[in-house]
Each structure stands twice: as C-alpha cells, then as structure tokens.
Backbone:
C-alpha cells in the first residue's frame, strides 16, 4: 500500500507557497500525483445575503469582485505549481458549489495537506479543514516548517477507533520512517490497551517500532508532545476528535491542543 494522490487545498495567495512546498515534499517521497486544488470564495454563499430577486449595485459589485478574485487566485495557484517544478502536478480550480467540489477531490485523494493556520481556525481555508477532517473524515497532514519524510514518527495510541484509523492510514508514512515510537498514557485514558500489541501489528506490516509508556494522569496532548520533542520527531500520528465534535470544540480536547501546539507535523484521521 502506498499513497498515489496528495491533495493541497489552496486559497490562491502567496501564503500558499510554504504549504505547496510541503505537499510537494510528500508527493515526491511517494512518487504520487500532487493535486493543487484552488478553492476560491463561493459566490453561492452570497445569495442568502442578497435576498431573492434583488440585485442592487452593492451586490453586483460584490459578485464581480468575487469573480475577479477567483480568476486571480487560479492564476496564482498555477504560477506556484509551476514554480514547484514537480512533474506529476495537477492544478484544479473549483467552481460553485466549491464545497461539493472540494469534498469530491478529497474523497479521491489519499491524504490532504493543510498548514498550521488553517488547522488553528485562521485564514480562508479554516472551515475547509474542519469539514474535511471531521465531516468527510479524510486523512489530514498538518504541515509544519521543516516537514520531511523518512525521519522519526511518534504514534499516539489509546486503543480507540480514531487512533486505529490514523495508524492504519498512516502506514505508508510509517514504513518510510527511520524510527517509530508507539506512545500511550494508560493512566490518562479510560480505555485498557497494550502498546506491545500495536508494536506487533506494525512489525507484521514492515514497520519496526518501539513502545513508550507515558507516565501521568493529566493532559495526554502534553505528554505526547513532550515525547515527540525528546525523540526529535518529524511526525506525530494521532486520531482526531475522539469525543463528540461539539464537546471537542467547546472544551478543547487533545486534538485541539495538538493543533494549537508548535510541535512536529501532524497526521490526523477521525
């Protein structure tokens, strides 16, 4: 099993440059297609504000501005993709309804790459991040500076279905890692789980891993991030939104703590 299509949602701004470079790093490591998907602001989102059957001067101006911005954004995405210079790059510019197109492109991709700003609820693609990871349940990589494939990976394990999905989906990444650490904090979890069982599971799939039991009953995210820092991890693989989504957003949760951290790049799956 490998990854054949890496997707990068892009807003069509210069801020996309670093994200696209990270996505290209991943695509090159797997010799995968790099799908540069331009997701402009959707004209359909303005319709409720305009009201039925009414098109005044302000509304017409707003529509024209959105159309012009979409054209400029598509041009910027094309230029950035050409600048990357990766031969297996494909540029796609979505039209209204943008969200439906973005969801479909995500379903046809092995993994989707976002930057830290979107993951933290900032910027034009923040809503797309939340929808793709929580509603579409697509595997997501939150790319941090210095992202690389083939380094140290930490797998957060609590025996839950979210952690299981993340670990299994991340297998192509783990198979390329120089070192894999399975980490869990039994005292901080309501579940019973054995880290050694996951080490065995990974070994049968070509991944040599070691286990590390984290001591403490407090914040699991803090314990995991501390382990990742000590190991010099390049990736932290974790399940996302293990509690009801509303509860996660109101009270924070481990996922929110990981997203707001300055730790390694994240591989998340819900």
Residues:
């Amino acid at each position: 099993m490998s990854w054949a299509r890496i997707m990068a949602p892009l807003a069509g701004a210069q801020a996309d440059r670093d994200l696209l470079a990270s996505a290209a790093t991943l695509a090159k490591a797997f010799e995968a297609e790099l799908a540069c998907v331009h997701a402009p602001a959707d004209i359909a989102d303005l319709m409720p504000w305009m009201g039925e059957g009414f098109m005044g001067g302000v509304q017409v101006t707003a529509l024209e501005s959105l159309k012009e911005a979409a054209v400029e954004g598509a041009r910027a995405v094309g230029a950035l993709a050409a600048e990357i210079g990766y031969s297996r790059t494909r540029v796609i510019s979505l039209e209204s309804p943008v969200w439906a197109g973005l969801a479909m492109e995500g379903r046809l991709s092995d993994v989707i790459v976002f930057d830290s700003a979107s993951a933290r609820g900032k910027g034009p693609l923040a809503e797309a991040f939340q929808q793709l990871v929580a509603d579409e349940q697509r595997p997501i990589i939150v790319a941090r500076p210095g992202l690389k494939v083939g380094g140290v990976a930490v797998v957060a394990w609590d025996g839950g279905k979210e952690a299981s999905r993340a670990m299994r989906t991340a297998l192509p990444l783990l198979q390329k890692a120089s070192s894999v650490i399975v980490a869990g904090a039994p005292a901080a979890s309501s579940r019973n789980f054995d880290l050694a069982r996951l080490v065995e599971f990974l070994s049968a799939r070509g991944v040599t891993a070691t286990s590390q039991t984290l001591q403490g009953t407090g914040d699991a995210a803090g314990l995991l991030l501390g382990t990742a820092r000590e190991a010099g991890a390049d990736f932290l693989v974790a399940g996302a939104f293990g509690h009801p989504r509303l509860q996660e957003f109101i009270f924070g949760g481990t996922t929110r703590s990981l997203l707001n951290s300055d730790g390694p790049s994240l591989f998340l799956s819900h």
